[in-house]
Amino acid sequence: MNKLKKETHSFQSEVKQLLHLMIHSLYSNKEIFLRELISNASDAIDKLRFLGISKPELYENESNTKIQISVNKSQGTLIINDNGIGMTRQDVINNLGTIAKSGTKSFLKSLENQKNNVKNELIGEFGVGFYSSFIVSEKVLVRTRFAGNNNDQGTLWESFGKGEYNITNIVKKTKGTEITLFLKKEENEFLETWRIQSIINKYSDHITVPIEIQMYDEKKKIYFWEQTNKAKALWTKQKSSISEVEYQEFYKHLTNDQNNPIIWNHSHVEGVHEYISLLYVPEKASWDIWNKDSKHGLKLYVKRVYIMDNSQAFLPNYLRFIKGIIDSNNLPLNVSREILQDNSITQNLKSALIKKSLKMLEKLSKNNNKYQIFWNQFGLVLKEGPAEDSKNLNLIANLLRFTSFKNNTAEQTMSLKEYVSNMHKEQEKIYYITSDSYTSAKNSPHLELFNKKNIDVLLLSDRIDEWMMNYLVEFEGKKFQSISKEDISLNKLTKEKIKNEKISTDISNFLKRAKKVLGNKIKLVRTTYRLTETPCVVLSDANEMSTQMAKLFSAAGQTVPELKYIFEINPQHPLIKKICKINDDKKFDEWINLLLDQALFAEKGNLENPHKFIATINKLLIEE
């Protein structure tokens, strides 16, 4: 063995911050540290089982995997030992000295501003449970050796949970990892075996690895090991034999989430493709759900053998909030990510799991209160569905929620079924408007006709809405129509037929003069009967890019083609009637440009030259 002196390393800066939070802003429920360490030990054994399929020598002639926990009251230590895969020296540095996860800084920043109970949830969810050891410990030792390392070279890691940790090469005869916690004096309750048992029964009963506690027989004066958990995979049991609490506790073990799931689905499927799935919908979104590098997906087993965490092969991105496991009898045991992507069985399983997930959400939608909790957390994610999954577009559309002009609230509570059932008798389409904000959408001049006719309009103000509506073409035979785009069918609502429209001489001259003034700035100038309070408005051509889509492209750094709007004027508005009578060409030009800027400002929310716009307003006000 290569003998090395003790080396001292500094923790990564993010780990220092995390440890400080752990020690000084404790979990409100300190016992969670043991659940975290047991979960890590279970993962290490799962990894050994998987790697051992192709490399049986990693077992080192020891087939029975287990987790063992012992206490030493005289020394004030709690020891958690597993015979799993273990760690190399470099693994120890990588895993116990750094947090190898993107978004760490933003996570820590948000954590510092949270109350203790929220910190508990976030720390567990972030998956840095090992560091929770320092909540109850003044010192932690980790002795570990990677499986199959025949020269007995192990690694000792030790730290007081401050700025540094030490690493030393040691002799370790057995594979796996042993963690020794030197408990703080005030944490001696965790040296009682009954207390350890109660924590295991509460959090870790369904871990498939036997968890043994060292007990002492007072009569025989000997120590012995006693298994304290059931060690049977919960998903393999009959649904009728599993309690609601058991489902909830398994979810918490699986996800490190402190909240109960809002709904779940447990299925045993036999036939050509035999598999078991247990899918959960969380009550709250994970902190990193919008981080493109965040890991999501299902935990994959094949014939009860752990294969991988966060397998993204079975659910699309728009369902990334779904947590759970899939246990297949058909996939090959030596599954790699590449094989999964190309495997026809995988595609069939994915199709089935998408359906199960959407049906689960459909069931949840029957409970308005619970579904609103879900929608407020995950609605934006689900809105990615229409663009990603055309096969299930109808199912997804039924799950979407909106607000509308009549709703008079920014909260998205209306389903498309509800909207269609309340459509106006003269209404042929589902009308909507997209904008930067709810307030902007609700106050758009495009709504004036619909308000007058008592026709409801969906108000879409999320950034993804414009993109989503490119794929959401119709619902129950009703086409969607943006009210900020040209639509001939609206003529029926105004009861005006453009071809037979009689326009006064003043208005006819106004249109000709306005077109001459604006030239190529606009596509067309015409009258409209859609407005009641506003003098003019701009519309996008039915076949051209919308204003909101142009904004999305621009924000993404994409080249946006020049938008040329249709300029519509309200001939009945007093301001239009007044401008019609202006003979001075220069003054007329100023008014027309002002009207266009006014309409563009209402449509886009900004102007290329707002100072010129303000100067023109001021000049015309002074002249009045």
Automatic annotation (TrEMBL):
Region (A): 1-337
InterPro entries per the UniProt record, alphabetical: HATPase_C_sf, HATPase_dom, Heat_shock_protein_90_CS, HSP90_C, Hsp90_fam, Hsp90_N, Ribosomal_Su5_D2-typ_SF
UniProt keyword Endoplasmic reticulum present: no
A Pfam match: HSP90
Cellular component GO terms, alphabetical: cytoplasm
Keywords: ATP-binding, Chaperone, Cytoplasm, Nucleotide-binding, Stress response
Occurrences of domain Histidine kinase/HSP90-like ATPase (ranges): 29-187
Annotated spans, C: 552-624
Domain of life assignment: Bacteria
Binding site for ATP: E36, N40, D82, M87, N95, K101, S102, G103, T177, R337
Entry's localization field: Cytoplasm
GO molecular function: ATP binding; ATP hydrolysis activity; ATP-dependent protein folding chaperone; unfolded protein binding
Task performed by this protein: Molecular chaperone. Has ATPase activity.
Family in the record: Belongs to the heat shock protein 90 family.
HAMAP family: HSP90
Subunit structure and binding partners: Homodimer.
Name this protein carries in UniProt: Chaperone protein HtpG
UniProt source species: Buchnera aphidicola (Melanaphis sacchari)
